[in-house]
Structures are given as C-alpha cells and as structure tokens.
Amino acid sequence: MTSPILITGAGQRIGLAIAHHLLRQGHDLILSYRTQHAEIQELESLGAICIQANFIDNASIDHFINQIKQHTSCLRGIIHNASSWDCEKNNPDFASLFDDMMRIHAKVPYLINLACSKLLTVTPDKTDIVHLTDYVVETGSPKHIAYAASKAALDNMTKSFASKLAPQVKVNAIAPSLIIFNQNDDEEYKAKTLKKSLMEIEPGSKEILNCLDMLLSSSYITGRTIQVDGGRHLK
Ligand SMILES: NC(=O)C1=CN([C@@H]2O[C@H](COP(=O)(O)OP(=O)(O)OC[C@H]3O[C@@H](n4cnc5c(N)ncnc54)[C@H](OP(=O)(O)O)[C@@H]3O)[C@@H](O)[C@H]2O)C=CC1
Ligand SMILES: Nc1nc2c(c(=O)[nH]1)N=C([C@H](O)[C@@H](O)CO)CN2
User: Fold this and answer.
1) Which domain holds residue 107?
2) DSSP designation for 233
3) Domain of 131: which CATH number?
4) Which is the closest atom of ligand 2 to the Cα of 176?
5) Which InterPro entries match (predicted)?
6) CB neighbourhood size of 204 (10 A)
7) What is the pTM of this model?
8) Domain total for the chain?
C-alpha cells in the first residue's frame, strides 16, 4: 500500500467525486463518512478504507484519529471536505449552531492536522493538506453567519499550518462558490444563485478535481487559497 490520502466526508457529492478521482489515479484512500450511503460499499470494493465517523464531540474526533493511526503509519495527503451548510434560520439555538459549525469546519481539521502531521513527513516526498473553505470567507454571509465564520477560521489555519509544516507539507485551501446544487433547491433559488457569478453555471465537482490536481502536483504553492467561484467577486 502506498501512502494513503485521507478524505473527510467522502460519502456523497464533492467528497465522493474526489474519492473516485483519486482512486482512478491509483492513490490509496482512507475516508470518513457519517451516513451509510450505498456509495460507501462501492468505495470499499475499490479498496478504500472507509471509517464511519460523526464528528459530534471531542471523543468522536479523537476516536477517528486513533482509527486513522491504526490503519496507517504514513499519509500522502489530507483533504478536509466534511461540512455542514447550516444556517441561523433553521437553528434558533444559535449557541449550538455556532459550536457545531466551529467543530466540523475548524476543530476537526485543527485536531486532525496536529495529530497526523508526523504521518505526512514519513516519506521524503512533498505531501499536502487541502482545506475546502468557501467564497463567503471573503464576504461573510448574513444568512449563514456561523458557517461563514467557521470557514474563515479554516481559511486562517491554512496560513498557520503552511508556515508550521513547511517545507515538506504544503497546505492550501480551495474556496468554492456554487459547485453543485442540493436536491431540495427549487428553480427560483437555482436561477437566483446562477445569476450571482459571471459564468452563471453550475460547474459540477470537476472544477474542484482540476484544482486539487494542480495543488497535489505542485512543489511550490503553499499557504494559498484557490478561489473556484465563476467570477462571483466581480458581480
Ligand atoms: N456544494 C457546493 O456548491 C459548495 C461546497 N462547498 C464546500 O465544499 C465541500 C464539499 O461540499 P458538498 O459536497 O456540497 O458537501 P456536503 O454538504 O455534501 O457535505 C459533505 C459531507 O460532510 C459530511 N458531514 C456533515 N456533517 C458531519 C459531521 N458532523 N460528522 C462527519 N461528517 C459530516 C456529510 O456526511 P454524510 O453525508 O455521510 O452524512 C457529507 O457527506 C464542503 O466543505 C463545502 O462547504 C463550498 C461552497 C459551495
Ligand atoms: N457543506 C456544504 N457547504 C456548502 C454547500 C453545500 O451544499 N454543502 N453549498 C453552498 C452553495 O452552493 C453556495 O455556495 C451557493 O449558494 C455553499 N456551501
């Protein structure tokens, strides 16, 4: 087994697309999933090590980290993809929402990066940490205040970990705007959202895969955020 890449939240959508993309490239994978999606069985049949993890408290994060270390003594990369796009409108308990957003988007990457950084330095080759953040790190989001703040924390940690882990480990962020809609998005929301960018398309996971390929193949880019947002900042 080559040094595996760790992906969090790989059971659906972008995380699932990343998992299949890296498997097709010949990488070994360790991945986390929360819900037992049918796709998990296929990933296991393709050789991925799939670990069920719901990051609801410190103990669950620690348990996941221990399971990683039981499966491998080295890592080629870590991709922090797991995320909950939750909002104040759906959560009147703002304190719990804030804690949940900070846990999944900042505490989980923080603890995994610190606990697994040595695994990224076992081989002499350059290795990578990639944080999936969000366009709203630049602008804030009045409808997703805690979500945006937690993604901003993750964005900031990109710089801290890049400095801490250089030169062997490169640490970068990918900041998407609309990539793929959700199943329950109605036509009115879709039309309004498409208009928010210059490109006015729903690009799909391929845009993230292209960006990931660039970062993993670079020997020089670190501490940076690659915006994948269709020119939304110019609208
Ligand atoms: N989709 C888009 O257009 C955009 C996406 N992004 C970012 O890109 C990344 C991927 O987006 P997308 O594919 O839509 O993400 P999803 O909303 O599909 O969530 C990704 C995964 O996170 C997992 N997850 C959520 N909460 C927890 C938890 N408490 N513990 C463990 N796992 C959890 C889910 O697991 P499960 O399904 O197993 O329950 C899910 O599969 C995210 O970081 C997102 O913020 C940013 C901007 C736009
Ligand atoms: N975890 C998630 N984060 C985000 C999602 C999502 O579906 N899951 N979706 C978005 C939107 O596409 C937004 O970028 C455009 O309305 C943001 N984050």
Assistant:
1) 5-234
2) G
3) 3.40.50.720
4) 14
5) NAD(P)-bd_dom_sf, Sc_DH/Rdtase_CS, SDR_fam
6) 12
7) 0.98
8) 1
